[in-house]
Amino acid sequence: MADPRGFLKVTERQTAPRRPVDVRIMDWKEVYERREKGVIQQQASRCMDCGVPFCHQGCPLGNLIPEWNDLTWRQDTKGAIERLHKTNNFPEFTGRLCPAPCESSCVLGINQPAVTIKEIEVSIIDDAFDGNLVQPHQPERLTGKTVAVVGSGPAGLAAAQQLTRAGHTVAVYEREDRIGGLLRYGIPDFKMEKSHLDRRLAQMEAEGTRFRTGVEIGRDISWNELKSRYDAVLVATGATVPRDLPIRGRELDGVHFAMEYLTPANKVVAGDGVSNQILANGKRVVILGGGDTGADCLGTATRQGAVSVTTLAIGAQPSTERRADQPWPTFPTLFEVASAHEEFGTREYLASTVEFVGENGKVTGVKVAETEYVDGKRLPKAGTEQVIEADLVLLALGFTGAETDALVSQVGIETDSKGNIARGQNWASNQDGVFVAGDAGRGQSLIVWAIAEGRAAAAAIDEYLEGSTELPAPVKPTDKPISVYN
Ligand SMILES: Cc1cc2nc3c(=O)[nH]c(=O)nc-3n(C[C@H](O)[C@H](O)[C@H](O)COP(=O)(O)OP(=O)(O)OC[C@H]3O[C@@H](n4cnc5c(N)ncnc54)[C@H](O)[C@@H]3O)c2cc1C
Ligand code: SF4
Fold it and tell me: Which phi and psi (to 5°) does residue 59 adopt?
């Protein structure tokens, strides 16, 4: 611990500034400005190097946070990135996108603002890339074993990198035209520019991971055929089935799932031509769902030039402070102001959607009523209905689970009661040699959990192929975050 009195000297938590709203909504670049080195170093000095670092427990990756805080304070970027990469393949993703459960469990957070762990993480990896410290790690020997990873989101990529470095020959199959899963086509550039993804993929390719885009397993190659071609298969296909709202008017033109809107928007930002793109320009937009996906739709609609955007949440507005039943070190449900909320639009709470209203087959509004709680159920309160005018309605209501039809019919894979792909303690499905990681097995979660699961499943596959493994396994399939959500 470099400065034992750091947390007493620097009591203010200072985070990176967001670019001015009127400037940033004119482009798709990241909202946050580059963190100043001096500030990062000062902030790192606030870490107390706790005897029992609760931040470790908050992070499913088990990141060695006090160690790299100390190394950052000492301006040892090489040491810091080595420690960070020991537990996290992709700190540039988590550093930008994670809601940081580690900060919610930081001991300093008991009576002071928590250490800015996430910002320190992203500054370490950005400095490491700038300083050419991120190099490919080719395996020392090849095992001659082959692994197919299906799905190129953070779970599939983390597993592929671990397995390639362990000497296996790994091919990642992705049905989209580009690699990255939700990092590529879910999360907009204003949260993470895709150059961060591309430079990591370049490292992985140089290490020997092979990428096969535009191939849907189950359709272009059957699961059985894939299984017979490879020594092991990892299913990391995500939880992509959107939750619908089958109420009156759902069939109207202009009512869409969030991903039908976000995926083409991200493709256009990447420079692709997209026919029949759903656009928000000049439209009154209503977003159902107040979570991350809803905020991403809002930021996208703002940049496309929407006339108005209203985000509706069925529940009550969360509090800005921890509630008594969500004490430290849990991850509390708090009222969050994402960058997109700061830019534009209004947020309505306790709003139950009753009906989509339309004319000539096109949506013109959303009928909502106040939510009332009856026997613990959220119901629309009679007599409180009103119509919010809308030309575009986006359903950002979460996801119900993985797409499993082909897996079930072609290889008899088992699913669990929640619609996820069932797996045992060693990440194995009921089919020999077929493993499951990420949202496909856990349900829609977080990038940090996907990376942790990918790493752990890689260890299980390595053990299955070689009889033993030295790869780390930071989580088990049954692990739950110390959080009040999920
Ligand atoms: C809009 C949105 C914003 C989000 N924002 C955040 C955030 O800010 N922070 C955060 O921590 N989490 C966020 N999440 C959640 C996070 O993105 C996911 O938890 C994470 O990406 C899951 O990773 P994964 O690798 O399991 O699956 P995914 O990222 O979903 O990747 C699965 C991939 O598998 C491919 N695939 C599926 N079936 C097949 C098949 N049969 N053959 C070939 N390929 C196939 C899909 O095309 C996809 O590319 C967000 C989610 C959404 C929807
Ligand atoms: S809990 Fe907070 S103060 Fe303690 S070691 Fe972790 S980051 Fe540092």
Answer: -95, 120
Q: Is 363 helix (H, G, I), strand (E, B) or coil?
A: strand
Distance from chain centroid for Cα 216? 22
Three-class secondary structure of residue 379 per DSSP: strand
pTM: 0.97
Q: Which helix (H) or strand (E) holds 395?
A: strand 392-395
Q: Which amino acid is at 346?
A: T
**Which region, left, alpha or beta, applies to residue 244 given φ > 0 means left and ψ of -120 to 50 means alpha?**
beta
Structure tokens at 356: 């989509």
CA 258 to centroid of ligand 1, rounded, Å: 13
Residue 175 pLDDT more than 70? yes
Question: If you search the block for the tokens 């005897």, which residue do you land on?
Answer: 51
Beta strand ranges found along 214-344 (DSSP E): 232-235, 241-242, 255-257, 284-288, 308-312
- Please give the number of the atom of ligand 1 that sits closest to the Cα of 297: 1
Would you say 448 and 459 are in contact if contact means Cβ atoms under 8 Å apart? no
* Per-residue model confidence as pLDDT tens digits over 102-123: 999 999 999 999 999 999 999 9
Say yes or no: CB of residue 175 within 6 Å of ligand 1.
yes
- Tokens (6 digits) for 159: 């597993």
Residue of 96, 95, 118, 91 lying closest to 105 (CA atoms): 118
User: Taking every pair of C-alpha atoms in the chain, what is the biggest distance, in angstroms?
Assistant: 71
Tell me what pLDDT residue 484 has.
45
pLDDT in tens, 461-481: 999 999 999 999 999 999 876
Residue whose CB lies within 8 A of the most ligand 1 atoms, among 30, 150, 179, 187, for a mutation test: 187
Question: Rounded CA gap, 159 and 437, in Å?
Answer: 9
Q: Are strands 362-374 and 386-389 parallel, antiparallel or unpaired?
A: antiparallel
At residue 35, the pLDDT reads: 80
Alpha helices in 337-421 (DSSP H): 339-343, 405-411
Mutate to test the pocket of ligand 1, among 447, 451, 475 (most ligand atoms within 8 A of CB): 447
